[in-house]
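F.,

This is the one I mentioned.
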């Protein structure tokens, strides 16, 4: 990695400190350590920003761009020793294709590898149409808008087509995350993700072909078409070759974690570099094809113990690349705005940012709705509401930024073109992330697409109820084990049982009853001896009671909560079919049983001093089940039996 010798926008007198390159060449610049400062700083920023974005539901990449912009302001105005040196290196990075080669490969391959291959194949025709036909139309319409409406100086047809190609690559990661969170149709989610995956490939192919033509100065339509075919078809062939090699290799090894993971990394990076540089083909297309092949046929060849870690590793690599790219984009935008203010950037260039944002959204809506009959072909689930979501999900992201950063470092293009490409592209990415990404959930609610299917919702609640009941049964067994009975069960409850599940306790009760009354074939039944005595006391909500009192107070609570006869609902649950009520004698017997239960529990608590060990608060249902387990243990030890239900 080396520095450009030219200042940003050619402005040697810029007041932006990082806008001018370091005054050294080759070995005079010293060690490579300053170059490592910025990427690790960016990753450190990501470590703090990620949990904050989750908590406040703000797009993660948007926050990174804002912090990157703040870092750019500091870099332009304050001398920060080693950090300033590092920011200068990255602001004038050379060669400009470094970002393209290092960061684009993992982003594209991770998306392809984690694609749902089955749904992707079902929607292949619609995805290809959106990723190629619609992209072609968008590239040329963006170029027309730039040449005949915006009319910036020094722009040619091919530079306008380069800009249109960059803005045609979508990255709806925040939209698809929201769709998954709200449980929206998986077909819709796959359609949006698949379109983003393939149009990354098509947009980059157009970008490379038109950029070569722009650098040559003059090219015929025939030569451009030949270049497009070579890049795309050659990339497909290269991707198939690397995919087949990877499949054969994965079929030959088993339970070799390092080897299997390394194989996917080699395919992603070596395949991208081989196709892109020596072969002069499309590395993006190569990664898309090889990634989809491994998703469809390779995952079944990966050892079972390696599959989940492999997926997490690629999600981590994608996260690392996204974090550095978006922080760097915010930094570079500020450096360009600061260095290029007045010449070549004018005040109306910043107004054009809003113009571009509105035009791109309107253009996508028009193209998607005009394509409605084609996309709906064979997909009855696809309607105008879904078309609105597809149109609104045209966010721009890391691919657009990487291509813009490469253009920014291409010295053969005029500085007026490079500065506008970087500033406009990064600003459009930020606007789509902030506006579209933050409001997609509101659009889904307004369209009524966030309401889950009743059948699916009922199934999910039944599954959740069965899982929760099974969890409580496991806690029951562990509560009386010799080495676990002294644990803090409040901590166990918070760790094991998802918080949202106990907040919806009323729905869980309804689901449990549905399993009992409507689904006789279900394995989970309220009549099972191990759970019937407890499950009949499910409450409509969850209450917590401090568990720091003396055993007698706890015993009184237990006698009130567990023993039958404390209210009408408990009596109904405790009565056998055909019983009509309790007479005075049975009431006295019940009180005697309660006193006997209280005595046994008090003895048990005195033995193990459980009141001092637990502390804090316990969920009422877990406490009920835990104390029932203690009672059963006391029965086994003392040979006594109480008929509670």
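My design for it:
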């Amino acid at each position: 990695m080396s520095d450009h010798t030219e200042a940003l926008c050619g402005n040697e007198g810029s007041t932006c400190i990082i806008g001018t390159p370091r005054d050294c060449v080759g070995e005079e610049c010293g060690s490579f350590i300053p170059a490592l400062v910025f990427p690790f700083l960016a990753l450190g920023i990501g470590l703090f920003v990620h949990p904050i974005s989750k908590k406040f539901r703000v797009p993660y990449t948007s926050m990174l761009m804002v912090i990157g912009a703040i870092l750019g302001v500091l870099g332009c105005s304050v001398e920060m020793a080693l950090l300033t040196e590092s920011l200068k290196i990255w602001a004038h990075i050379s060669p400009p294709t470094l970002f393209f080669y290092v960061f684009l490969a993992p982003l594209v391959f991770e998306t392809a590898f984690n694609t749902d291959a089955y749904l992707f194949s079902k929607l292949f025709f619609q995805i290809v149409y959106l990723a190629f036909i619609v992209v072609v139309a968008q590239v040329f319409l963006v170029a027309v808008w730039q040449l005949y409406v915006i009319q910036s100086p020094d722009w040619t047809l091919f530079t306008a087509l380069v800009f249109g190609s960059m803005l045609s690559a979508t990255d709806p990661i925040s939209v698809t995350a929201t769709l998954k969170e709200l449980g929206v149709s998986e077909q819709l989610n796959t359609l949006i993700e698949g379109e983003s995956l393939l149009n990354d490939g098509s947009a980059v192919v157009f970008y490379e072909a038109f950029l070569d033509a722009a650098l040559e100065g003059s090219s015929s339509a025939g030569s451009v078409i030949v270049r497009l075919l070579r890049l795309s078809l050659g990339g497909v062939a290269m991707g198939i070759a690397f995919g087949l090699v990877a499949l054969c290799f994965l079929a030959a090894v088993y339970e070799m974690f390092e080897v299997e993971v390394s194989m996917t990394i080699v395919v992603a990076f070596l395949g991208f570099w081989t196709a892109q540089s020596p072969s002069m083909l499309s590395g993006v297309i190569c990664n898309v094809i090889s990634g989809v092949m491994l998703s469809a046929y390779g995952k079944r060849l990966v050892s079972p113990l390696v599959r989940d870690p492999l997926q997490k590793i690629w999600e981590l690599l994608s996260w690392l690349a996204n974090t550095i790219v978006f922080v760097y984009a915010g930094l570079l935008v500020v450096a360009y705005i600061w260095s290029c203010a007045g010449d070549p950037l004018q005040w109306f260039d910043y107004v054009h940012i809003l113009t571009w944002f509105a035009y791109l959204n309107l253009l996508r809506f028009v193209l998607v709705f005009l394509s409605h009959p084609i996309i709906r072909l064979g997909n009855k689930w696809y309607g105008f509401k879904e078309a609105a979501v597809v149109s609104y999900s045209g966010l721009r992201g890391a691919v657009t930024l990487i291509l813009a950063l490469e253009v920014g470092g291409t010295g053969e293009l005029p500085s007026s073109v490079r500065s506008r490409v970087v500033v406009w592209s990064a600003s459009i990415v930020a606007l789509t992330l902030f506006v579209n990404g933050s409001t997609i959930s509101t659009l889904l609610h307004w369209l009524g697409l966030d309401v889950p299917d009743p059948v699916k919702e009922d199934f999910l609640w039944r599954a959740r109820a069965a899982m929760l009941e099974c969890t409580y049964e496991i806690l029951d067994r562990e509560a009386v084990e010799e080495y676990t009975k002294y644990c803090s069960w409040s901590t166990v409850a918070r760790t094991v049982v998802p918080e949202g599940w106990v907040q919806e306790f009323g729905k869980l009760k309804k689901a449990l009853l549905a399993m009992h009354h409507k689904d006789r074939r279900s394995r989970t039944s309220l009549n099972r001896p191990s759970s019937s005595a407890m499950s009949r006391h499910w409450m409509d909500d969850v209450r917590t009671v401090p568990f720091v009192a003396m055993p007698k107070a706890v015993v009184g609570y237990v006698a009130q909560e567990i023993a039958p006869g404390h209210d009408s609902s408990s009596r109904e649950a405790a009565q056998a079919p055909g019983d009509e009520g309790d007479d005075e004698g049975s009431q006295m017997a019940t009180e005697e049983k309660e006193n006997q239960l209280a005595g046994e529990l008090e003895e048990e608590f005195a033995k193990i001093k459980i009141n001092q060990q637990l502390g804090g608060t316990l969920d009422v249902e877990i406490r009920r089940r835990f104390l029932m387990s203690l009672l059963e243990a006391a029965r086994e030890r003392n040979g006594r039996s109480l008929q509670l239900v």
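The longest helix spans residues 304-340.

Talk soon.
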